[in-house]
């Protein structure tokens, strides 16, 4: 099916600011609570949210094979399981309906009252019921920086790192949507110089600048996903702040890897931007040396040029941007991650989420965590209010933003915003 929703020449009869992340070419998917307290699946153009459940009931998706209640759900899982042809058909129809040249809905005042909402009339929800969550460690710059800090420069990258996308299984129970505050976690740490551990609130709460992709049903137990098919199982992407407690992590992580230092909270942006909408922003991935094994070799452009930034906002002051990075810096791309994840026959399901791992760029102002930005606290960052940060303070809000831009077309993710509350 052609992907004509991406037509860059189309404009919408809904107002869209020139700097908006959500022009009619984006058409992301999310879940929201309406002013009437009804939960629905929706999309967004400019600053208008669109109730897809209501649009479907009014017959605007006639001709597309959809069940009656597909959008009247509190998550996108069933829609995602319908597969790429359906996602495309629905995005194409939405593009047509909101095209400036199409009077069908534009001139129907009664229908517009039912399906359109201002953003202050809705409350965004977690878009997917995430079954399984995997986090990769796919930025060479990040792995090198952290490895240098934890093991020294000569052992920065483990011997496997350049041969496979390293990952681990996380917890989906603590994945939350933007806007939900979190608590500073408590746990066990080994203070510097101490011989036995102590229990208490973490003193090194950190963000991780990541993106994550959401999959559809891909393979049965025992089957692998060939790398050339992998992208067809990716529904879309979100911004992802994988909160980390560095002092807990450092004490616990050998030999089995991340555990309680990582699974207390992870925040995602509420609108899933489809892989289809990101098509115009494909770029080459970093050159890989040594050449990976055959099941990880790919053709074409598998990385995406997505500008990322992190801001810290103290409670009574304005924000300071502390990092600018890009999704294209990832050494291992999403197709490689999915091929590797399933090479042993592990099934991937609709609503699974795969985190990229912290996305650090080549320069110190593009590092994707406070651990790297402040070099484990040795070089505190200064915020615009004059205060210093080694890690995240109580009542700070951390904001991640991301967008692609090319030839005047801007497709973005909005933001994921999370406040860190003091420990109980
Ligand atoms: Ca992570």
Q: Radius of gyration from the CA trace?
A: 22 Å
Low-confidence stretches: none
Q: What are the bound molecules?
A: calcium ion
Structural category: alpha+beta
Strand coverage percent: 25-35%
Shape: globular
Present the secondary structure layout:
Elements: E1 30-33, E2 39-45, E3 48-51, H1 52-57, H2 77-81, H3 84-97, H4 103-106, H5 109-115, E4 116-118, E5 123-124, E6 133-136, H6 140-151, E7 167-169, E8 175-177, E9 182-183, E10 186-189, E11 198-201, E12 205-206, E13 209-215, E14 234-241, E15 244-245, H7 246-252, E16 266-268, E17 273-274, E18 282-283, E19 303-304, E20 307-313, E21 320-326, H8 334-342, E22 353-355, H9 370-373, E23 381-382, E24 388-389, E25 397-406, E26 409-421
Bound molecules: calcium ion.
Keywords:
424 residues; alpha+beta; 8-stranded mixed beta sheet; 5-stranded antiparallel beta sheet; 9 helices; binds calcium ion
Account of the protein in words:
By secondary structure, this protein is of the alpha+beta class. Helices cover 16% and strands 26% of the residues. It is built from nine helices and 26 strands. The strands form seven sheets. Strands 6, 7, 8, 13, 14, 16, 17 and 22 form an eight-stranded mixed sheet that branches. Strand 1 (30-33) and strand 2 form a beta hairpin. The protein starts with 29 loop residues before the first strand and ends with a strand. The model has no long low-confidence stretch (mean pLDDT 97). Calcium ion is lined by residues 135, 208, 210, 242, 355, 357-358.
Brief digest:
This protein is α+β, with helices and mostly antiparallel strands and 424 residues long.
């Amino acid at each position: 099916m052609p992907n004509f929703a991406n037509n860059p020449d189309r404009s919408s009869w809904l107002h869209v600011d020139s700097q908006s992340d959500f022009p009619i070419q984006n058409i992301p998917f999310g879940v929201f609570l309406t002013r009437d307290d009804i939960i629905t699946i929706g999309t967004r153009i400019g600053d208008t949210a669109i109730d897809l459940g209501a649009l479907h009931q009014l017959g605007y998706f006639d001709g597309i094979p959809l069940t009656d209640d597909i959008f009247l759900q509190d998550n996108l899982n069933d829609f995602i399981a319908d597969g790429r042809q359906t996602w495309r058909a629905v995005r194409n129809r939405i593009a047509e309906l909101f095209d400036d040249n199409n009077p069908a809905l534009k001139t129907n005042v009664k229908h517009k009252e039912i399906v359109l909402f201002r953003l202050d009339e809705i409350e965004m929800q977690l878009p997917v019921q995430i079954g399984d969550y995997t986090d990769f460690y796919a930025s060479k710059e990040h792995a090198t920086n952290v490895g240098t800090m934890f093991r020294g420069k000569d052992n920065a990258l483990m011997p496997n790192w350049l041969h496979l996308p390293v990952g681990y299984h996380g917890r989906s129970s603590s994945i939350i949507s933007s806007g939900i505050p979190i608590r500073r976690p408590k746990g066990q740490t080994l203070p510097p110089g101490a011989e036995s551990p102590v229990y208490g609130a973490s003193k090194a709460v950190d963000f991780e600048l990541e993106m994550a992709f959401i999959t559809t049903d891909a393979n049965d137990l025992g089957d692998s996903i060939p790398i050339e098919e992998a992208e067809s199982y990716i529904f879309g992407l979100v911004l992802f702040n994988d909160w980390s407690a560095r002092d807990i992590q450092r004490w616990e992580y050998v030999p089995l890897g991340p555990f309680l230092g990582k699974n207390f909270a992870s925040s995602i942006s509420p609108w899933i931007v489809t892989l289809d909408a990101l098509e115009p922003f494909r770029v080459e991935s970093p050159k890989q040396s040594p050449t990976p094994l055959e099941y990880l070799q790919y053709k074409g452009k598998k990385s995406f040029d997505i500008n990322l930034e992190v801001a810290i906002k103290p409670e009574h002051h304005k924000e300071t941007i502390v990092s600018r990075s890009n999704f294209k810096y990832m050494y291992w791309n999403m197709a490689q991650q999915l091929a590797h994840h399933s090479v042993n026959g592990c099934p991937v399901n609709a609503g699974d989420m795969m985190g990229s791992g912290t996305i650090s760029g080549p320069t110190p102002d593009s590092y994707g965590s406070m651990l790297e930005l402040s070099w484990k606290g040795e070089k505190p960052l200064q915020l615009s209010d004059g205060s210093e940060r080694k890690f995240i303070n109580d009542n700070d809000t951390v904001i991640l933003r991301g967008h692609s831009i090319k030839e005047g077309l801007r497709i973005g993710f909005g933001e994921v915003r999370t406040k860190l509350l003091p420990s109980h």
